Amino acid sequence: MTAEPLIFGPDFKWGVSASAYQIEGAVTEGGRGTSTWDTFCAEPGRILNGDTGAVACDHYHRYAEDVALMRDLGVDVYRFSFAWPRIQPTGQGPANPAGLDFYDRLIDELLGAGITPAPTLYHWDTPQPLEDAGGWLSRDITSRFADYASILAERFADRVPLWMTINEPMVLTLIGYAVGGHAPGKALGFEALPVAHHQLLAHGRAVQALRAGGAAEIGIATNHAPTWPAGDSPEDVEAAALYDNLINWLFADPIVLGRYPEGLGEAMPGPVAEDLEVISTPLDFFGLNHYSPTRVGAPTGNPDSAATDGLPLPEGLPFEPRPIDEYPKTDFGWPIVPEAFGEILRTLKNRYGDRLPPLYITENGCAINDGPVDGEIADQRRIDYLDGYVRELRKAMDDGIDVRGYFQWSLLDNFEWAAGYSQRFGLVHVDFESQVRTPKASYHWYRDLITKSRG
Ligand code: GBH
């Protein structure tokens, strides 16, 4: 397909994104402690086909090959995450030297390949002992997280310019603690709200620790998607507005504006006003993960379970996700709606105006599960998805939205949480038996896009 090449100029940063538990494997090596995801995967029935991240892409051993794939792809930046249990096996106390050494090797390999490392401190893999002590329901974890951030800054700030604190705190709150489809598997409904506050406070304290340790540019990666009311009735509109506050603004408003969306601050523990001062510590950039829009209406007792990764919602919720069936879908069943990407970018700009920091798109991509045919993977539907979304991004930037970079999710097919290895987001196919990596058609397409986009 594709019409004229898209020009983003020489300064725009193109990247790929990944996370520790989804790719590293080697869960018992290098002194790594147990994470909540190791525990969760060991519980029968939690993960499709009983899959686990114990081996995943074996990136812990194959990182050099993976960096070479990125170098040949021509990306400027690589977003990965530190595994907290590698750095601090129990979540507190002195750093584990072998854990630091692994990320040293990875970072040096990246720098040697001309790729800027852009790590996230936390992508859902909590050290199990911290979870046993209350996890994100306990305020104590915010001190632990600040210590962890200090360790990382001290070791890596000299070579790492771009930092993110937490990945998708909403997904951890909603799927991890409210409905129980991710680790730690708790189904607390609205009782999960303290998890949001503690992640926000941990974020703010980590920003301060990273700054004190010399980190140059600091942000967060939160997921955002337009919430479309299911109909025009006041009930649907109100239900959608409530859902929108929870899903889109519960984290962004406190960070950008220093206050909770209406009605939500009251549900939070601790000295909320004081905490908001820390939470709103200024950021250098704001990271946006986006996949697909959500439709929400008033409760009918017949929700769309896709929006909670197939899990039943708690009873008695004041809103209900509904299917979006009028667009094509990825193999994961998520609707493909490039305009919704432009819509959420404009919504962010309208909501925050000049208070919105420069943006990075820290994740965008799709599950297309095509496999090799004669050694080639012709994943044209992924190319079409990415082409459509990148064009929407260009339009939003032309409308004055300041976006500095775009990270495709993901370089490799990897462990897709509760879906195990059944959903493939990679530009590179991974055979999970042999660990052979095979670049797909989309890999070549992305390389071409990057080259031509420089202008
Ligand atoms: C991200 O989560 C994660 O950061 C990453 O680890 C993960 O691998 C990647 O995305 C792909 O899943 O049925 O249309 O309503 C994204 C999590 C995706 C959860 C969209 C809610 C609703 C889809 N969100 N999903 S829909």
UniProtKB/TrEMBL annotation:
Family matches, as InterPro entries: GH (IPR017853), GH_1_N_CS (IPR033132), Glyco_hydro_1 (IPR001360), Glyco_hydro_1_beta-glucosidase (IPR017736)
Catalytic activity: Hydrolysis of terminal, non-reducing beta-D-glucosyl residues with release of beta-D-glucose
UniProt xrefs under Pfam families: Glyco_hydro_1 (PF00232)
Enzyme active site: 168, 363
Entry superkingdom: Bacteria
Residue runs in coiled coils: none
EC number: 3.2.1.21
Family membership noted in the UniProt record: Belongs to the glycosyl hydrolase 1 family.
Name of the protein described by the UniProt record: Beta-glucosidase
